[in-house]
Every structure is written in C-alpha cells, then in structure tokens.
Design brief:
alpha/beta; 2 domains; seven-stranded parallel sheet; two-stranded antiparallel sheet; 14 helices; globular; transmembrane helix; lipid metabolism; transmembrane; signal
C-alpha cells in the first residue's frame, strides 16, 4: 500500500512536469489521498474493533449496550433552561426513528439540566417545507405549508397532525436552535417565517428564538450542486443530469413503495406530494413513477434548493434580529499542496471523492467563474469540509459577523454572527465522529453556552412575578 502511494505521487509529479494538464495531475493526487484515507479508516476501524473486543473479553464490568461513558454536562447556576432543539441535515433523522442510530452520536442525551429535542422533519424536502414542519413539530397542530406556496409548488397544503414537543413555545418561552448542515438553512428559514407571521393563529416574531447555531451549514449554497454536473445553469435549476435523475428516481421509488415497516428507520415525509401507492393507487402510482412526474422538479421545492442561486435568493429574505444570538461553526479539512487544494487524508473516503469532484467540476458560472475572484475569495470557495466550502458556511452574504477569537470572553453580542472554525469533515461533527470524546465535549460546550445566555426580558418578567 505504501509503495503504491509513493508510486502514484511520483507518477503525478512526472505527469505534471511533462506538461500534462493540471486536471490529470490533480486526479492522480486525489487518488493518492483516497488511498491514504482508506488505509487510515481501515486502521482506525480495526483498532477500535480490537479495543472493544478486548474490553468485552477481559473486563467483567463491560456493558455491550453502553460501550462509551457519556459525561452529563451542566453548569452550576444556568441563566436559562430553555429547550435546545437539534435540527438534522439532508438524509438525517430525529429521535422518532427509533430503529436508527443517533444522527448526533448521542449528543441528545448529554445535558443533565436543559431539555434536548431532536424532531424528525423531511430529510430531502425544501428549506421552506422543513421549516414549517419544524414549527408544528414543536408547537403542535396540523402542518400548514401555506396556501400560496402549496399552489405554486403543486403539493397539498396540509400535512401530518403533530402533538407538539414544546407546546408553550412563545416569546416568553423561546428555544435555542442548533442545526447541522441543511439544518442551519432550515432554522434560518423558520426565523424568516416567524418574522413574517406566516403561521395562522400564532402571533410570532424572531424573539421566539433565543439563539441560532449553525454547524457547517450551506447558508450561501454549495457550488457543486449549482454546476452542470448536476444539471444547473447560470440562471439556476435547468434539468437534472443522469446522476441526478438516478438519485431522484430512487427517492420517488421509495416514496411510492411507502413501506410501513421500515418507516421507523426511513421516512421521507413525502405525504404532501401524494407519491405513495396508498394515495394514488397501485396503477396511478406506477404511472407517476414511470413518467417521473414529481412537481418538485418543476418548482424546485426540494433539497436541491441548496444550490448557490436558490440559497442566496432565500437567505436574502432573512433579516437578522437584534434580539437573537447567532453562532456559526465553519468546518475545514482541506490543505494547500503544490498549488492544489486537496482533501486531507483524515477525511472520510466518500467525502474525499466528493471534495475532489467539487473542486474539479463545482465552480459554476453562477459564481462568475474562477477568474473573476481574487485569490483569497477563490480559496474560500475551494477549501471545504468535503461538502460545503468555507465561504458557503460562514453566514448569509450581507449579514454582519465577527471572528470569535476577536471577542472578549465576557462579550456575547446579539444581532451579529459570531464565527468560529473547527477542523473536521462534514460528518465528523454529526453522527460519524472519529473521536467520540471530543465530539461530546463539543456539544457539551455548546449546551453550556446556550444556558449561559441571559434570559429574555419577557420571561424574566414572568419569573419575577
């Protein structure tokens, strides 16, 4: 393995020196990184297996169901104990999928004081539909996507009936939101809908939210999903490529089958699209599946609105509130090497491939082209966590932000994004961490930060009464 890696590296150098294209050389270097990533991942998995096998064999106190001891995080005198809501990303899930492993690698059970909520919302739905579902999951009631939106996008106006995980949610009883990946976009869309008083019968405003924390969220879009590789043009969504069609047809098939058994593990939450054989009948569902007449493709009302054009259009509508704390954690696990931006071998193998394809094919005309950006800006669009570029993660374009390192420890301003960078790939801070101890410490510190924020004036007034 080591000899083959050095052979690839030497061959790449010879190819580049002989005057061949940078793309050819980059492909060979990417192959080298991929091989290193597989070797590293295999070694880690093998060492973990040996470690746990040794514990099971030699330790009388070892419990198979609890291989990791989780520390319960608390602060001596928290300033608030508002619920903390974890919002998953694309293809994610909440605690309702009881047969699935934890999307957050157990972070839901780390805090001993605050109530941690992890609702399930549409894993591949649009930011709007996910935000609406998130509201009703917390507040309770029948999901109402809005009359105008539903007619424009071609799906039913109403969805499922929700009991409400936090039925007292209001300005007096706000919540903290923490979103990973597309979960951050969902939170900001909900922020906008609260400000617009979108929900009938509820007098909402952004003060219903105490704090927003985004983790590797594509709040400025992902260039790779804006490129011709997926079927996008300069003006936005045009038509899906072959790869995109294969993926969406698979989703359509899963929605059509609507298997009730595995729904505890997989639930696309497509009931409002009416794609199931239970809703259309077997013959009607099959005809729809063969024609692939899913209105989401015409309206763009699904998770592919994460492309740069759509995302920046949506985020322009989000006005920052002087009553809310905003935090953004950007992730990066790429390096500069011989003039190339390469994924680190510490990145997961699948993300190494995605990162390489994103750099090769993912700088679309919608961003003006690489030649129209200065070196620093271009580097921010190329460096990433394997999925989302740094520039795409920081905060919505036009919003004020400050680096956390430049703030005094005692200063936590509202109405401005506080940005910090962590070294991780896209999945390392969610459900696939290499170091579970560091992962739990990260979320434990997040919870402490939420509880250390001063309570809302309105809730403080109620407490004094």
């Amino acid at each position: 393995m080591v000899l083959s890696m050095w052979f690839v590296f030497a061959f790449a150098a010879i190819v580049y020196g002989a005057g061949y294209s940078r793309q050819c050389c980059y492909g060979l270097l990417l192959l080298l990184v991929f091989m290193l990533s597989i070797a590293r991942s295999s070694f880690r998995l093998l060492s973990d297996w040996i470690h746990h096998f040794g514990e099971m064999r030699y330790s009388k106190d070892f419990e198979l169901k609890k291989p990791h001891v989780r520390k319960k995080w608390d602060v001596g005198d928290p300033k608030n104990l508002y619920p903390i809501v974890l919002v998953h990303g694309v293809f994610g899930w909440g605690t309702e999928q009881m047969l699935a492993p934890s999307y957050w690698a157990g972070a839901e059970s780390l805090d001993a004081q605050a109530r941690i909520l992890s609702p399930s919302i549409g894993p591949v739905s649009s930011a709007h539909d996910r935000a609406v579902e998130l509201f009703y999951k917390l507040k309770g009631g029948k999901v109402d996507y809005g009359d105008d939106h539903s007619k424009e996008c071609g799906h039913a106006r109403f969805g499922e009936e929700c009991e409400g995980l936090h039925s007292t949610w209001s300005e007096e009883h706000p919540v903290h939101f923490i979103g990973h990946s597309y979960g951050g976009n969902t939170i900001l869309m909900l922020h906008h809908l609260l400000a617009e008083k979108f929900f009938p019968g509820h007098d909402t405003n952004p003060a219903w939210i105490k704090s927003v924390t985004t983790i590797a969220s594509p709040v400025n879009g992902i260039p790779f999903f804006s490129s011709r590789f997926w079927g996008f043009s300069h003006h936005g969504f045009k038509r899906l490529s072959v790869l995109g069609l294969l993926g969406t047809r698979l989703l359509h098939l899963i929605a059509f089958l609507d298997l009730t058994g595995p729904k505890a593990f997989i639930d696309l939450r497509f009931d409002h699209w009416g794609l199931s054989w239970r809703q259309r009948g077997v013959l009607g569902g099959l005809q729809s599946l063969l024609r692939h007449d899913w209105a989401a493709f015409d309206s763009g009302d699904f998770c592919m609105d994460v492309n740069v054009v759509s995302t920046q259009r949506l985020m322009r509508a989000v006005a920052i509130s002087p009553h809310v704390y905003y935090y953004s954690f950007t992730q990066k696990l790429t390096v500069d090497f011989l003039g190339f931006v390469l994924p680190s071998p510490r990145m997961m193998p699948a993300l190494v491939v995605h990162c390489g394809l994103s750099i090769l094919f993912g700088f679309p005309a919608s961003l003006g082209g690489p030649d129209e950006h200065d070196h620093a800006t271009l580097r921010e669009w190329l460096h990433s966590d394997g999925v989302v570029p740094i520039r795409g993660q920081r905060c919505p374009e036009g919003h004020p932000f400050v680096e956390s390192a430049s703030l005094p420890d005692s200063d936590t301003p509202k109405g401005i994004w506080i940005v910090d960078e962590i070294e991780s790939d896209h999945l390392g801070i969610a459900g696939l961490p290499w170091d579970l101890g560091q992962h739990h410490k990260f979320y434990g510190d997040l919870y402490q930060n939420c509880k250390a924020l001063s309570p809302s004036p309105s809730s403080q007034h109620l407490r004094n009464k």
